[in-house]
């Protein structure tokens, strides 16, 4: 291990204090604010997450306000951020803190990690930033900075790798300023020691960085190959009835988009034509009780919506009815429902001038 590692975090703190971005959650030690920002920023870039953070604080100024909101309201406010289990866990934890913990977040890692949706990283971040506890965070930025500077080739997505990096970060963290130290290494990884083509010549660690000195910047950190991406074929039935109403259904099964609303969905094994679609048992079941006047395909080429482990090849079929449906809703009300971004984009485009 290089001699510079004992002062690594001190050097990072010095860089951070001169170069940090002015972000609202950095001007607060309120655990509610810190927790909210950390949940939003899981798997989300700061530029995308910031407007949501401000929107949530405006709508729900306190954890009690968040707890009192309905799940549908939370999902609607969250719409567009993706990974919707975060929103459901956010609501569950808000209710626990507000109703069972007297509105106060636990002040230590051991109890924070017991909260729903709070893992090692989030518990460490809240404990260090809000309560000055010496718990080191480890995320993609931290993996990248430590692996390159110190020269660690253990795969970061392996059990051994996760343990090694956590132990190392815990050993190196500045015990007097753990919150600042954690934010410093994350900021450095996000803005300077970036995944592709970092400006190593200007790096504060270039004289001691293992990866730079050994020309291995592009090879570190090491990551095991992931499972192949799964292809799924979605066919949304967008009903337009004679009285200007449509139909939305809520996804109740576990998996992507649980509790969100969408148009009736027929999932197929491959891309299908209109005639192939109409022959499917799922379509015949969908058509029961409906007097279909016409069905047209909105997008000839599937819209490819990319999720972390699957790609959704999606077509929207416009189904015109001669009759009305009891469970249908006015087209003007569609925007009141929490829907996946894929559906929201279609609604915005198709219904804008309808």
Summarize the structure.
The protein is an alpha+beta fold and 354 residues long. It has helices at 8-19, 31-40, 46-59, 63-68, 71-78, 85-100, 109-112, 120-131, 140-151, 159-172, 178-191, 210-213, 274-278, 281-287, 341-350, and strands at 230-240, 245-246, 249-250, 261-262, 265-268, 292-297, 303-306, 310-321, 329-330. It has 15 helices and 9 strands.
Query: What is the CATH topology descriptor of the largest domain?
Result: Endonuclease III, domain 1
Written as H for each helix and E for each strand, in order along the chain, the element string is: HHHHHHHHHHHHEEEEEHHEEEEH
Mean pLDDT: 92
Distance between the termini: 65 Å
Supply the CATH superfamily name of the largest domain: Hypothetical protein, domain 2
What's the CATH class label of the largest domain? Mainly Alpha
The number of helical segments is 15
The count of strands amounts to 9
**Backbone structural class:** alpha+beta
Per CATH, the architecture of the largest domain is Orthogonal Bundle
What proportion of the residues form beta strands (DSSP E)?
5-15%
As residue ranges, the low-confidence spans are: none
């Amino acid at each position: 291990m290089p001699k510079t590692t004992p002062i690594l975090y001190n050097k990072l703190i010095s860089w951070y204090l001169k170069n940090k971005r002015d972000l609202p959650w950095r001007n607060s030690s309120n655990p509610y604010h810190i927790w909210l920002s950390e949940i939003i920023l899981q798997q989300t870039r700061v530029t995308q997450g910031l407007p949501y953070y401000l929107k949530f604080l405006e709508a729900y100024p306190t954890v009690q306000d968040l707890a009192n909101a309905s799940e549908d309201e939370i999902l609607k406010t969250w719409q567009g951020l993706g990974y919707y289990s975060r929103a459901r866990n956010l609501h569950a934890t808000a209710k626990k803190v507000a109703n069972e913990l007297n509105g106060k977040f636990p002040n230590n890692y051991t109890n924070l990690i017991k909260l729903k949706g709070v893992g090692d990283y989030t518990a460490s971040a809240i404990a260090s930033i809000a309560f000055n506890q010496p718990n080191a965070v480890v995320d993609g930025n931290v993996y990248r900075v430590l692996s390159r500077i110190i020269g660690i080739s253990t795969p970061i997505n392996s059990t051994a790798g996760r343990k090694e990096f956590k132990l190392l970060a815990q050993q190196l963290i500045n015990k007097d300023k753990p919150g600042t130290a954690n934010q410093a290494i994350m900021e450095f990884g996000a803005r300077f020691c970036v995944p592709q083509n970092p400006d190593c010549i200007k790096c504060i660690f270039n004289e001691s960085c293992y990866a730079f000195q050994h020309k291995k910047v592009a090879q570190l950190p090491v990551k095991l190959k992931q499972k192949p991406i799964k292809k799924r074929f979605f066919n949304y039935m967008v009903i337009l009835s004679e009285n200007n109403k449509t139909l939305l259904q809520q996804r109740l099964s576990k998996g992507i988009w649980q509790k969100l609303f969408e148009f009736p969905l027929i999932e197929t094994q491959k891309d299908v034509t209109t005639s192939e679609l109409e022959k499917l048992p799922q379509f015949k079941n969908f058509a029961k009780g409906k007097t279909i006047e016409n069905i047209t395909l909105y997008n000839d080429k599937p819209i490819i919506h990319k999720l972390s482990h699957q790609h959704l090849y999606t077509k929207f079929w416009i189904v015109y009815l001669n009759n009305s449906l009891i469970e249908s809703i006015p087209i003007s009300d569609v925007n009141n429902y929490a829907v996946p971004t894929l559906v929201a984009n279609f609604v915005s485009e198709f219904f804008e001038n309808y």
